[in-house]
What does this fold into?
Amino acid sequence: MTLLNPSSKRVLSATLLITLTLSLAACKNDTASSSTATDTTTSDSPSSVEPTGVLVIQESADIPTLDPGTTYDTASGQVVENLYETLVTYKGNSLSELGPLLATEWQEESGGTGYRFTLRDGVKFHTGNPFECKDAEYTFRRNLVTNTSDSGNWFISESLLGTQSNANDDQGVTWEKITDAVKCDGQTLVFKLPKADPAFLAKLAYIGQGIVDSAHAIEIGEWDGTEATWKAAVGKDITGSPLSQDPSGTGAYKLLNKTATAVTATAFPDYWGEQPSIKDVILQKIPEQAARLQAFEKGDADIIETGGRSIIEAQLTDKPGIAILDDLPSTSAFGISMNQKISGKTAIGSGKLDGQGIPANFFSDADVRRGFVAAFNTPQYIEDVQKGKGKPLNFLLPETFPGYDASIEAASYDIDAATEYFKTAWDGQVWDKGFTVNVSYRAGSATAQTGMEILKKNIETINPKFRVNIVAKEWSQIIKGSNQGSEAMVMTGWAPDYADADNFVYTFYNSEGYYNPRINAKDEQIDTWINEARSITDTEKRNVLYADIAKRAIDQAWYINMPNEPGVLAYRDNLKGISLDTFNPMLSFATGTYWKNLSKS
It folds into this structure.
């Protein structure tokens, strides 16, 4: 999963939608239980034009790993996705269409429980080794074997083995199951799933499934891919692996050097596709925002971590040599959660409805939750925090993703309605006795602080007996407290691991998802609908289910939904290949496209 703090406006892949199986640029076989996608690439011949120039990117984060098998953060992913390639990738700016990359075509079989991938010929790894089926087989088996909590392999394991856990945590994971799940039939890669997974193809587009050079990996000391040694590799931390230090992929760029402060890559001359226009790419770690902005304005950096919309609008708009691309699709969802069974005493004060605190199960009354939702002034938040950009969400699913039904009316700001909810809550005791609740926000996050201050003001306006104390905490403290169940209300969010609605809906609304166990929320009907939606491949049926879930979730009021916020990107205007038509939020975290598709004038 990808947990976001309220200030983290990262566009991640990582990251929703409908069954891509049926919405690809694919042919459907109406006479058999299969679907087929084929290669539409016009040319596999490398361009004769020599790449030139340097792309300079400056950010504050370091690069934890270059091993795709454990890549699960944006900083690492933006490099790994250019050194390695997956079987499939997103087409243009679409979030619902996949096209060929290292696979040229594929067939769905047996009602979605089997897939056969025809692999591209004439592809070389950076070592010069040829890309073959054995490399893809090794990659997926390695991911299933290692599968640590620091990687995204839990969701490919769930598809192929029926569990998110590795063999150390789930004794049902065996070598036989792993080898049955993925194997080569000649040069055709075959997957066998225990049940249909409508998100399976989207999961294959995640860079964590980038195909590694198996011969090179084994030679430099990685797992040797055999039954004799697999148990010793289960759950192994591969963040600083030999492959992270010496990567070999099929991507358009290969690693030149990695230090604590910079990563340098250069165009791979034997790349199977068209040669990139830009020869070298340098990612520099520059912690100081002022230094990044200065380099950017001088033209010493082409792309930088700016600090967000407020900085761009205040310091970069209308500056010579700088272009601004606004209204980029949002692929994250943020909300303020309400914990229905709070542990500990920090957040609940007296622990009673006496005006000095709240009972631990204060938010178990739906009218309390509905009152808080109705008291949040979303239009004010959009204006004050997002500079007028964005609109309310009816569901914690980005509106850019299929599965989001924009016709459903979002919960609205309504003080009169909030008042009536609070008068009804706890058989009138909330209104008569009042309450004091302590809520948390991430220290230093102006976004989260403003949101909580809006909520505090409106709640306390309703009844002088109502008190909301907002407390600034370190993000690590909030995560720890949320995991322990000691936080009453926090603002947090999610960015997609893969392009299917299930990655959000299961995460936020299923009783076994990421958040519900932490806020002690459960609804049998919602669970039933979610489990049905994640087991069928019929797009229309899934969308109907998601609409039903959204409507019921509004009534359950487990979260105060933050509005969506379109992204904004600043870049040097001599950098070409960046536009709304090419920007895909599931790809590069800086430019929305691979480095190979950029050029400089």
Remarks:
- The two ends are 38 Å apart (CA to CA).
- Residues 5-35, 42-46 have pLDDT under 50 and may be disordered.
- The first strand starts at residue 3 and ends at 4.
